[in-house]
Amino acid sequence: MTAIADIPVRLEAGATSGLASIVQQFLEQQLADSTRRRARASHLHGRLGLTATDYDASVTVDFRGNEIAISDGSAGPHDATIAGPYQSLTRLLQGRSNPLIEHLRGRLKVTSRIGNLFFPFRVHRLMKLAPEGAH
Amino acid sequence: MPAIYTTEWYEALKTLLNENPEVDKNAPRGVFHVLAKIVGDARSRYLSVGELRNFVVLLADGKCLEYRQVDAPPPRKDFEFIFEFPASVFEEVAAGQIDLIDAGLKGKIKITGDMRILIRHAELVNVLYDVYAREVETIWPKGKPGSADGVLAAAGR
Question: How far does Cα A10 stand from its chain's mean position?
Answer without folding.
Answer: 13
